[in-house]
Design goal:
The structure is a homodimer. By secondary structure, chain A is of the alpha+beta class. Chain A is built from seven helices and 15 strands. Strand 2 of chain A pairs parallel with strand 15 (322-324) of chain B.
């Protein structure tokens, strides 16, 4: 059984998950490759190789766990956290832990093995976004859970273990530290100014123009001011909204179009780089400890997309301090072209 | 010229360093290899391939920048920060920046190309530790600088760009966020309890025994309670001390012996894994803004050593939440053997 532990000094949580399958005496970083379609558990026709699906979008009348789907959500076969685990919160002196209660799901983004998220049609990308939204709404019903993180690792360098295009959702019984920092920062700002810090940031960037890659009526695509990675991009809704799961399907379709352009641009300009895509979303609402009482007003959902062209090394670990060799202003100029 | 920028939301600082030499249209993560001794700027006899040395320990009467040294400290040829840059702190609305004033130095740990830090003699490892200490003392004299981070990246997966054994020192004009969090946490604890949180942590672990890999009169070697990485190890002095640079040379020698054992153990058990070694040290003292007024009493220097056997992916970036497949208690059992 996995458990969550809190670092006694800084409060960073980790998941200790012995069943995640690494042998104790493994010798090297394993580059797990599984490019043969007959062995790929995410390929159409191989539905029996995964745990039974949670939801899927496909042809009307399709039987669960059979071909004919466009997007399919399944439990992770090697979950870091499990819904079945009873919740237990324990402390002994300085050392805190929580049982490994939670959810770990995989969103298979396409039945085809040879296609990436950015190559899907706008309709199909919209289905992926809808699956994320639907899963967050469902996980929010479990009052043991505090946060649902939606993320995508593309490419081995970005942490993907299978090449077939997929994203993941991990729902945790505590609010992760990085999330809490962002929530606290936006809450403090709101308390002081009665304005959302993200709205102010977008406003300033739209005035300043130097880092605005693209904007339309609903969204703004920014080259992040303090980008950790070359070509790091944030996509924010112009309308103030804390929760991604409240975005209408029409606006998800527009968002899908922007993602398609951006990912296509990465491929064209950077040569199909590995990347991480993160949904920064408000915490789940059913339980509501102190920190985010005003979250509807002070938080603002957004995407952060991090191409992994540079390595993260000791300096970054030690200081939370990244070295980025490409100026965000240059990245903006380059990426602007793909939105034309 | 590089500059430091602060993320407007969470306050994370990054260094935007266009001169670090990555072309804007690079296509892949570059595995920079330079294993030929004749081309290696860190090999004995190639002293002219580096900027002039800052300090070196070697044979008496040796001329600077000639062979005959054991440890050699040089400026980084592609520095993220520069001492020559005038300090300038600017803000515009939500966006803050600081000029790239600082230092970026390389500690070449041995004249030999084919030997790792853990394979050096205890005397030679002591010289490396002495170089770190001496450089911190010197950098502390520059009152524009706030923090000196000493770190080592071993192996490409850990971020090393050259294979010849070396460590680095980066001194920054702001206190990095991760450092500030640790300083603030230990300060808050001290304000409340009038005890050092690290001393309390060591005390609890020594009582609990399950994660104590080794202890002697002066140091304790711990399998970290909330280890982010498999076999993550912390080495702490038993004596409360905020500043590494105040450790006596005799105690550095004992520390060198522990490092040698640990690194030898990693090699034996994990097959020479990539790792990051971080010195967590108190901030430089000349300038003293609010956060660490009591730092002598509330902070406690230590090493954190992170083998890089697992990949860090989207989940970790998004949440600061690591998944570690090896329990710290198991890692302790395994590593104990190498200290016998």
């Amino acid at each position: 059984m996995s458990e969550l532990r809190r670092d006694p000094i800084v409060g960073r949580w980790v998941i200790i998950a012995p069943e995640r399958g690494l042998r104790p005496h493994f010798a090297k970083v394993e580059a797990r490759k599984n490019s043969k379609i007959e062995n790929c558990p995410f390929c159409e026709g191989n539905e029996s190789k995964t745990p039974p699906e949670i939801i899927a979008y496909g042809a009307p009348g399709r039987e669960p766990n059979t071909p004919g789907w466009d997007v399919r959500v399944i439990p992770n076969k090697f979950p870091a956290l499990r819904v079945e685990a009873d919740i237990e919160r324990l402390g002994f002196g300085l050392l805190d832990k929580v049982s490994g209660t939670g959810a770990h799901e995989v969103v298979v983004e396409t039945p085809r093995h040879d296609i990436t998220l950015g190559e899907l049609s706008e309709d199909n990308i919209t289905l992926v976004l809808r699956a994320w939204k639907e899963r967050i709404i469902d996980l929010d019903k479990d009052d043991r859970l505090r946060y649902a993180l939606v993320f995508k690792n593309k490419g081995i360098e970005a942490g993907a273990s299978l090449p077939h295009s997929h994203s993941q959702i991990i729902a945790t019984p505590i609010t992760p530290m990085v999330v809490k920092e962002e929530l606290n920062a936006s809450k403090e700002y709101y308390c002081e100014k009665e304005r959302c810090i993200f709205c102010d940031y977008v406003y300033q960037e739209l005035r300043d123009k130097k880092r605005v890659i693209y904007q339309d009526e609903h969204y703004v695509v920014l080259s992040a001011y303090a980008a950790r990675f070359p070509y790091e991009v944030w996509i924010l809704p112009k309308e103030h909204l804390a929760d991604f799961q409240l975005v209408s399907d029409e606006k998800l379709y527009i968002l899908a179009g922007l993602l398609k352009k951006l990912l296509g641009g990465y491929k064209e300009i950077l040569g199909d780089p590995p990347y991480n895509l993160l949904l920064h979303n408000a915490p789940l609402r059913t339980p509501r400890p102190g920190y985010w009482l005003t979250v509807e007003e002070d938080y603002h959902w957004h995407f952060e997309i991090l191409p992994r062209l540079t390595r993260v090394a000791g300096f970054e670990w030690g200081t939370g301090f990244y070295i980025n060799p490409v100026t965000p202003e240059h990245a903006c100029k380059v990426l602007k072209k793909v939105f034309k």
